[in-house]
Amino acid sequence: MKFVLDTHCHTVSSGHAYSTLLENAKYASDTGLELIAITDHSDRLPGGAHLFHFHNMSVIPKKIYGVEILKGVETNIIDYSGNVDLDEETLEMLDIVIASFHPPCINPGSMKENTNALIKAMENPHIDIIGHPGDPRYPIDVKEVVSAAKEYKTLLEINNHSLRPGSFRAGGSDIVLNIIKECININMPFIMGSDAHICFDVGNFRYIEELIKDIEVPEHLVVNTSVETLKNFLS
Ligand SMILES: [Zn+2]
Ligand SMILES: [Zn+2]
Question: Where would I find the H helices in 60-172?
Answer without folding.
Answer: 88-93, 111-123, 142-152, 160-163
